[in-house]
Amino acid sequence: MTAFSLTFLGTGTSHGIPVIGCACSVCTSSDERDTRMRSSVLVEDEQHAIVIDTGPEFRLQALKHRITRLDAVFYTHDHADHINGIDDLRSFSEQSPLRVYGSKRVVETIRVRFPYALDADVVAGGRPHLLLTVMKPYETVTMGTMKVTALPILHGRDEIFSYRIGSLGYVTDCSEVPQKSVEYLRGLDTLVVDALRRFPHPTHFSLFEALGLINHVGPKQAYLTHLCHDLAHQKLEEELPPHVHVAYDGLVIPIGGGNE
Ligand SMILES: [Zn+2]
Ligand SMILES: [Zn+2]
Ligand SMILES: [Zn+2]
Predict the structure, then answer these.
(1) Rounded to whole angstroms, what are the CA distances from 21 to 11, 84, 97?
(2) pLDDT tens-digit readout, 48-96
């Protein structure tokens, strides 16, 4: 039984693809799956819609996917490629403040960088109206049928959040998963995981580290995201095991009930 759906709004690393000024074979590819906006996902059940992260192209992503309502935004971390679309949340907070969740650090960053978004005076236009809530590690927030649990992971030296929503795991900008969080990622229907490029990187999983996590926690299916222009979609898809796929912008998949 399908519990909810997952839409990949963006699947690219911080530069996006194409990279400005780059003429490599991926940046000039005619395969539209090689065009990647900054990473973000929309998760919906019949009555609720949430997004994880709002990168610089959030407005374009919302228009492309005709997002007309949002019940909450969950942030993984405060890097520009995950947070800088925040002003366009004003369209979703005209009637009442929009609920926004993240770690203590994310909430503090939003307070400092976007103080005008915290004014409870909804009459004043031109800016978002956000109701910020700090999530503690392993805390769960319930949105309709969706239970969203914050799972700490490492992004280089920074501890950031990945999320488990029912039988979906969304693990981006990840260089290491602590053992406790690994336990929360077992029994998934779908695991989405950071796979920046083939070669190691200090703050992101390489392709082989991503495959290692997939093998270790054993989801029914897995999707790779946050790719850079080293990885061509079709070529990579052809070399992956049958239950692992490359995500692409606009891909929509149903999330089933998990294998527990
Ligand atoms: Zn990122
Ligand atoms: Zn390129
Ligand atoms: Zn990051």
Answers:
(1) 20, 22, 39
(2) 999 999 999 999 999 999 999 999 999 999 999 999 999 999 999 988 9
Tell me which ligand sits closest to the C-alpha of residue 203. Answer: 3
Q: Considering every ligand atom shown, identify the ligand nearest to the alpha carbon of residue 77 and give its number.
A: 3
Q: Count how many domains the chain has.
A: 1
* Closest ligand to the CA of 194: 1
| 207-249 pLDDT tens trace | 999 999 999 999 999 999 999 999 999 999 999 999 999 999 9
Q: For residues 104 and 134, is the Cβ–Cβ distance under 8 A?
A: yes
Answer yes or no: is pLDDT of 39 > 90: yes
Please give the distance, rounded to the nearest whole angstrom, from the Cα atom of residue 257 to the centre of ligand 3: 29
Distance 19 CA to ligand 2 centre (A): 5
Give the domain CATH number at 71.
Answer: 3.60.15.10
Asked if 172 and 226 count as a contact pair (C-beta separation under 8 A), the reply is yes
